[in-house]
Design goal:
The protein is an alpha/beta fold. It is 38% helix and 15% strand. The chain folds into 2 domains: 9-131, Four Helix Bundle (Hemerythrin (Met), subunit A) (Up-down Bundle), CATH 1.20.120.420; 137-340, Translation initiation factor eif-2b, domain 2 (Rossmann fold, 3-Layer(aba) Sandwich), CATH 3.40.50.10470. Helix 1 (36-44) runs antiparallel to helix 2 and helix 5 crosses helix 6. Bound molecules: 5-S-methyl-1-O-phosphono-5-thio-D-ribulose.
Amino acid sequence: MTLSIAQALIWTGNSIGVLDQRKLPEQTHYDNYHDAAGVAEAIISMRVRGAPAIGIAAAYGVVLSVQQHYSQSENWQNAVATDIETLAQSRPTAVNLFWALDKMKAVLANTHDDVLTAVTTCAIKIHADDLAANHTMGDFGAALLVGAKGVLTHCNTGSLATGGYGTALGVIRSAVAQNQHLNVYADETRPWLQGARLTVWELAQDGIPSTLIADSAAAWLMKSGAIDWIIVGADRIAANGDTANKIGTYSLATLAKQHGVKFMVVAPISTIDWSLENGDNIEIECRSPRELLPACYDTPNSLVSAWNPVFDVTPAALISAIVTEAGVVLNPAEHAQGIRSLQL
Ligand code: MRU
């Protein structure tokens, strides 16, 4: 399979090109950033989104910070620490962001000469490792799909959301590359429409036909018997397998149980938060009501408000398989030790 699709992030050596995903599918437009504050803003504004891509962008943000401050100030460490904090404040739910920043902090703490080369090497490796993990997960997940006729995916988990191939969408890509005949359905994914604007676009770029559905059609689609597996990515997985992902994932998992449909979570190890025993304490980002409210209600003293959580947590008991690059855990609620055994 060729990777002709647009990449979310392009490292130039002294800046990072960020594909503005808010403009897709109509426009393929890259903004170029030369400092960490710009990268943080690109994450906050969702020019770049998707858990692994956010982590990779933040890693390059640290490189830009070192590039800016290292030779210019005796207090460069403080300036870089401030930039790291700015990057950490950009979005709260995807643990890949904090995982990547921790890796960069460790390099900073342990390097005494040529800090710029050390942090650049680390960021490029985080990016390359994620891409490699995607391909491995693609193979593992595709093996589970053998014999399936229909899959439904939620949000966007493809090249745009990762180092360049995809988690859940990578599994679909790999299955199709292996000549599995799958009917691929994608949820619109309200309110931001990652499915309608990004997922079906990516699939079309690869020549993979797909069928878009309204989120609210998922139950009826499952009832029709068209779906064997729901396949999603993750923003943070607790050590017991509870999984935070795009709002609506929990609804899909509940519906899957009702209809005897299997439910697959695909995520790199960098998405597992080993510090959390379960999903109860995962911080769920709430975005502006303006992303939901019709403009006529966005007025002072309006009687209409909006609640806009953008992630939810699916209990491990509703998950049939967690696929990582380190292996697959089937029925994680029954095999919590299985998840621990993935710790690299
Ligand atoms: O708000 P977003 O678009 O950043 O949310 C993205 C998701 O929820 C994805 O499913 C998740 O990050 C996994 S992407 C490989």
